[in-house]
Give the backbone structure.
Amino acid sequence: MSAPASEKNSGSHDSPGDTPVCSAKGCREPAVWVLAWNNPKLHTPERRKTWLACEEHREYLSRFLGMRDFLKDVVALDVWEGRADGAGRGGSAADR
């Protein structure tokens, strides 16, 4: 199983009004899920990298990260963005 998307193309949205898209390779569907993950060999325990997922790819991307014990949380995108607004999660745009 190959990586679904590079971090460079991790389905982010950089400017207001941009629609976030799924991180699965080749998918351009709107994202509705955030998969928060962490590679313990590279990241501190509290750091969270994220992939975005559409309904179709949520399970596939979750399995991909889960098989490596990287998956930490799966949250609806609107809930995750609410956390970012109210909780001051910090981190760079590349982490989201």
